[in-house]
Amino acid sequence: MSLVKARLAAMMFLEYFIWGAWYVTVGTWLGRTLHFSGAEIGLVAGTTAVGAIVSPFVAGWLADRWIATQHFLAALHAIGAVLLWLAARQISFTPIYWLVLAYACLYMPTLALTNSLAFRHIANPKQEFGPIRVLGTAGWIVAGWTLSLLHVEATATPLRIAALASAVLALYSLTLPDTPPVQSRSAFSLAKVLPVEALRLLRQPAFAIFAAASFLICIPLQFYYAFTNLFLNEIGLTDAAGKMSFGQLSELVCMLLIPWFFRRLGVKYMLIAGMAAWAVRYAFFAFGNPGAGLWMLFAGILLHGICYDFFFVTGQIYVDLKAPEEARAAAQGMITLITYGAGMLLGSWLSGAIVDRHATVAADGSATHAWTPIWLTAAALSAVILLVFFFAFRERDEQTGDENR
Fold first, then answer.
1. For the stretch 138-148, what's the b/e string if a residue is b when 16 or more beta carbons lie within 10 angstroms of its beta carbon?
2. Among 346, 338, 287, which residue's Cα sits nearest to residue 315?
3. 194-405 fold
4. CA distance 48 to 401
5. Stated pTM of the model
6. Which of 99, 227, 259, 368 could cysteine-pair with 87, CB 3.0–4.6 Å?
7. Domain 1-177's class?
8. Strand 359-361 to 395-396 pairing
9. Of the candidates 230, 164, 219, which has an alpha carbon nearest to the alpha carbon of residue 24?
C-alpha cells in the first residue's frame, strides 16, 4: 500500500472509530445510568438520521463548490469534538439531545466527505477503495473492544473517547492531500443536490418498490442500533460492546462473499436474504439469554453481515446499475436520504415507543424491559416487509429479458 493510500486508510480508521465509540453504547448510558425513557433513547439514537437528511445538502453543495474537503473535515470534526465533550457532561434529556443532534448534523456529512476525498486521490476506485474503506470497519471493531476492556459502557466515557478521537482526526485532516472544490461557486439549489435524473428513477415500478422497501426495513433496523447494547447489558451479558463487534467481523466476511452470491441469487433474492436475516436475528434476540440461549445472542450478532451487506450493499449496487451515469452519485444520495435519513428517523420514534410500552419503571427511575415482545415486534415488522417485497418486486434482467419474480 502506497503512503497516500495508507494515510487515507488511517483517516477511515479514525472516522469509524469515532462513530463506533459513542453510538453503540449511548443507549446503555442513557437508560441504565440516567434513566431516560425508551422514547428519549430513540430520539437521541435518531439524531444520526437527521444528520443523514442534512448530509447531502452539506457534503453535496458546500464541499463541492466552496471549501477544500480536508479543511471542511477538520472544521466539522473540531466543532464536533467540542459538542460531544459538552454532551458527556450533561445529565438531563434536553441539553443532551440538542448537543448530540448538532453533533450528528456535523458528523454524518463527513462519511460522504471521507469517501469523496479518498476517491479523488486513487487511480482505480474499484480495486483500491475496498482495502482503504475496510480500515473503517476495523476502527469500529477496535472502538467496541476498547469500551469492553475499559468496562465503561454505562457511562459517559465513550462520548469523551469519541470526542478525543474527533479532535485527533480534525488535526490529522489538515495533513491530508489537498482536495479543492471541483465545481465553481454558485447559489444553493435543491436541484443540484437531488437532480431530476435521480428522481425520475422513482417512476420505474421496480425501483419505486425497492425504494419503499428500503425505507420500511430501516424502521425495524433502528431497534438494533438504538437498543441492542442496552438489551445485552440489561440481561447480564458481559462486555457487550466487544461481543457486538463480531457483527462487523461478519460484515467483512460477507462483503467478500457478495460477488459469489450475487451471481447465483441476483438482486431480488439478495435483498430478500438480507430482510429475512433481520427477522431471524430479532427472533434469536427474543428467545436468547446469557445461559443456555447464549448461542442465539451470538447468532443474532453474527447475522449482521447478511443483514447489512445483503440488503444495503446489494441495494447500492442495484442503484448504480439502474441510475444513468451522470446521476449515479445523486441517486446514491437519494437512497441514503430515504433509508438512513427518513427510514431510521421514523424507526427511532417507533422503536422508542414500543420499548416504553414494555418497560417497568422502579421508584428510583430505573427501568427493566420485557425484551421478548419488543424483539418479536421488530421481527414481525421485518417479516411483513419481506413478504410485501417478495410479491411486489419484479425486475427484468436487461441482458436476458427474463423477469425476476
1. bbbbbbbebbb
2. 338
3. Growth Hormone; Chain: A; (1.20.1250)
4. 40
5. 0.84
6. 99
7. mainly alpha
8. unpaired
9. 230
Q: What is the mean pLDDT of each run of 10 residues along the chain (405 residues)?
A: 88 95 94 93 93 74 70 94 97 96 92 82 75 88 92 95 97 91 56 66 90 92 92 92 90 82 84 94 96 94 89 81 72 81 92 93 86 97 94 65 46
Q: Which residues of 17-32 are buried (b: 16+ CB within 10 A; e: fewer)?
A: bbbbbbbbbbbbbbbb
Q: Per-domain residue ranges for the chain?
A: 1-177, 194-405
Cell of 305: 453481515
Could you tell me the end-to-end alpha-carbon distance of the chain, in angstroms, rounded to an integer? 43
Burial of 252 (0-12, 13-18, 19+ CB in 10 A): middle
| Cα–Cα distance for residue pair 340/353, rounded to 1 Å | 19
Contact residues for 403 (Cβ-Cβ < 8 A; gap 6+): 394, 395, 396, 397
Q: What is the pLDDT of residue 113?
A: 83
Q: Are 348 and 262 in contact (CB under 8 A)?
A: no
DSSP string, 277-292: HHHHHHHHHHH--SST
Cell triple for 289: 439469554
Q: Which of 279, 274, 249 is nearest to 262 (CA)?
A: 274
3-class secondary-structure state, position 204: coil
The whole-angstrom separation of Cα 357 and Cα 155 is 25
Are 147 and 24 a contacting pair, CB within 8 Å? yes
Task: Report how far apart, in Å, the C-alpha atoms of 128 and of each of 6, 12, 253 are.
Answer: 11, 14, 18
Closest CA to 247 of 137, 379, 358: 137
Q: Where are the beta strands (DSSP E) in 30-99?
A: none
Distance CA 153, CA 134 (A): 25
Distance CA 76, CA 279 (A): 37
Among residues 2, 140, 169, 183, which one has the least CA distance to residue 70?
Answer: 169
CB 159 within 8 A of CB 85: yes
- pLDDT score recorded for residue 128: 79
Residue identified by cell 422513482 is: 202
